[in-house]
Design a protein that fits this description.
single chain; seven-stranded mixed beta sheet; 30% helix; globular; binds S-adenosylmethionine
Length: 185
């Protein structure tokens, strides 16, 4: 595993309820997700965002959670069963070079990559895969931690996203993060 990838045991810390005080997942995501949506959590870890996403899409919706680390996905599956949303969730273990979501082309209404892109070896490829997965007018919330990512680096990632074809809709304010809401025109 590359040094820049967060260790699997940090998954428990990332999923701790305390984190909601700074980053409340339902409040962050509810403007973009509606009942019945199909959504993607790319780099989900143990599901701090995936589980609230499952509540927001409701019984008729679908959440696809993808992570590089099998142990993260194992933790997420257990947590999904505990809160009774496992039937509307699909989990995938991907590779460092690909999210393995080619089959989802133009199926995703909303995608999230929260604190992930700085760990990915090829951000352009990652962003391209997210772009391909989105339906026309689909939204993508890209968020990176201010503790690990400079404003310059985040702007560089945004420039890559624009080159791929995303346009910037807004810059949501999320504590301890650089964030941009992107759309596939
Ligand atoms: C800092 S954690 C953030 C997790 C989650 N999005 C959150 O905010 O709680 C980054 C996650 O991205 C995953 N990751 C790193 N590189 C990845 C890649 N190339 N493809 C998919 N997931 C990756 C890691 O395994 C880890 O679970």
């Amino acid at each position: 595993m590359s040094e820049r990838v967060c260790p699997w045991w940090l998954g428990y810390v990332l999923a701790a309820p305390m984190r909601k005080l700074a980053q409340n997942p339902s409040r962050i995501l509810s403007p973009y997700i509606k009942q019945g949506d199909t959504v993607l959590d790319a780099g989900s870890a143990m599901g701090f965002f995936s589980l609230p996403m499952a509540h927001l899409v409701g019984e008729t919706g679908h959440v696809v959670s993808v992570d590089l680390q099998e142990k993260m996905i194992r933790g997420l599956k257990k947590r999904a069963v505990k809160v009774g949303v496992e039937k509307r969730m699909e989990t995938r273990v991907c590779t460092a070079r690909s999210l393995c979501i080619d089959d989802l082309a133009e199926k995703i209404d909303f995608a999230l990559a929260f604190a992930v892109v700085h760990e990915v070896p090829d951000p352009a490829r990652f962003l391209n895969e997210v772009h391909s997965s989105l339906r026309k007018s689909g939204l993508f919330l890209l968020s990176e931690p201010t503790g690990h990512v400079t404003t310059e680096l985040f702007n560089g990632t945004l420039a890559v996203a624009r080159d791929i074809g995303f346009h910037v809709v807004s810059f949501p304010v999320i504590r301890r993060s650089h964030s941009a809401l992107l759309a596939k025109p």
